[in-house]
Design the sequence.
């Protein structure tokens, strides 16, 4: 006991803590896919170069990146600390600086190799630390700064505080610049989404097998979560969303303790997550028997999904994809039925979303965005509340060199036993 006490005293009185520090991360030729940073030095450099080209086109001296997904994209920082503001200062030249709470020092040193860390005390704000840099060591830089005004990581109070402290600056809203770059996935990113798709399928299989009379939504969710973790997944941005009859119309709620009853339908929408990349899928499963009209709706959903996937071609506008889906629905006598989109871009997701941030880039009827190879979508064929029956299916689809490829492969069964 006395020996143990002496050891504790020695540890408490260490003045040179170098032996206790985590060594800063360095890039290797083959990044570790199981731990951040997940990408090679060359990939991070290419991303940063793309951002700097966008900065040059707008005459920016510094880009203050605040969206968690974009900070992850440029640095690889993967943790739950994004509930507090993070700001990545990207200068036109030189090393970026990552600003957040001082307590994140060890995590940043462990995961981030291409940005210097600048911590702030909890009696300060991230804006205070940013201003120390902009008004101090970077005082000579032209005060023309870009911010992500529509980022969830930049609260109004923080933005106002920043502008008040740096009064002589010109502030430009460059929201969406990095988001647009992220829409086209590199080969490494595509491989992560494929891994996420396998994890999604494992979770869906476990959830569907657990659906039976008397089982609770909670236990179905537990089976789903366990299977995804065992398949190599980590915490996803959302869900899983698991809802049974009576709550099917709720968009973003998940399991309760309600128990499944005879004749119930169970809505599943979930995503595996690997290295922060997602591959969502969705199914509507009826227990033992399907109500009248369900099989017809399932057929229409499947046909519309096929038409949608066939329309995913390089060079086509997003609106044409929606039109292909809607055309099948209209032809089935449901021309009154409209959706806000029939899918959306997916990839990086950080809680509370797998959509890539607080913006949803959808396959909408009015979208002029153009499809490019390397884009990946959560594609939905959704017919709920039609008056003729309900059905829903969705999958992750990658637009690759050889066309559209469905990555999630969970069977589409109308009824489960």
Sequence:
């Amino acid at each position: 006991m006395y020996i143990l006490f002496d050891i504790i005293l020695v540890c408490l009185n260490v003045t040179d803590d170098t032996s206790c520090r985590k060594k800063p991360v360095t890039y290797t030729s083959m990044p570790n896919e199981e731990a951040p940073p997940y990408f090679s030095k060359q990939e991070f450099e290419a991303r940063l170069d793309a951002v700097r080209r966008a900065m040059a086109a707008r005459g920016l001296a510094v880009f203050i990146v605040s969206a968690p997904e974009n900070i992850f994209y440029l640095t690889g920082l993967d943790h739950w600390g994004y509930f507090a503001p993070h700001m990545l200062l990207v200068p036109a030249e030189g090393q970026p600086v990552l600003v957040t709470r001082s307590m994140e020092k060890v995590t940043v040193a462990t995961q981030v190799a291409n940005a210097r860390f600048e911590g702030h005390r909890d009696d300060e704000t991230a804006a205070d630390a940013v201003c120390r840099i902009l008004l101090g060591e970077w005082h000579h830089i032209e005060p023309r700064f870009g911010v992500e005004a529509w980022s969830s990581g930049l609260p109004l109070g923080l933005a106002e505080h920043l502008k008040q402290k740096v009064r002589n600056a010109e502030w430009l809203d460059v929201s969406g610049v990095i988001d647009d770059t992220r829409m086209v996935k590199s080969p490494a990113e595509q491989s992560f989404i494929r891994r996420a798709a396998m994890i999604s399928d494992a979770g869906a299989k476990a959830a569907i097998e657990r659906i039976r009379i008397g089982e609770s939504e909670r236990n179905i969710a537990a089976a789903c979560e366990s299977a995804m973790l065992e398949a190599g997944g980590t915490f996803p941005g959302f869900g899983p969303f698991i809802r049974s009859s009576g709550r099917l119309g709720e968009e973003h709620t998940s399991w309760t303790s309600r128990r499944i009853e005879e004749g119930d339908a169970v809505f599943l929408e979930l995503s595996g997550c690997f290295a922060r990349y997602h591959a969502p899928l969705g199914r509507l499963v009826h227990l033992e028997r399907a109500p009248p009209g369900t099989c017809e709706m399932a057929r229409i959903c499947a046909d519309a999904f096929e038409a949608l996937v066939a329309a995913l071609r390089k060079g086509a506008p997003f609106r044409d994809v929606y039109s292909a889906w809607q055309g099948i629905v209209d032809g089935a006598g449901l021309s009154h039925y409209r959706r806000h989109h029939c899918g959306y871009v997916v990839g990086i997701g950080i809680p509370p979303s797998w959509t890539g941030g607080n913006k949803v880039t959808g396959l909408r009827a009015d979208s002029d965005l153009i499809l490019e190879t390397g884009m990946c979508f959560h594609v939905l064929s959704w017919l709920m509340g039609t008056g003729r029956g309900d059905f829903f299916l969705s999958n992750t689809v990658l637009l690759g060199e050889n066309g559209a490829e469905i990555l999630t492969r969970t069977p589409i069964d109308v009824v489960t036993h």
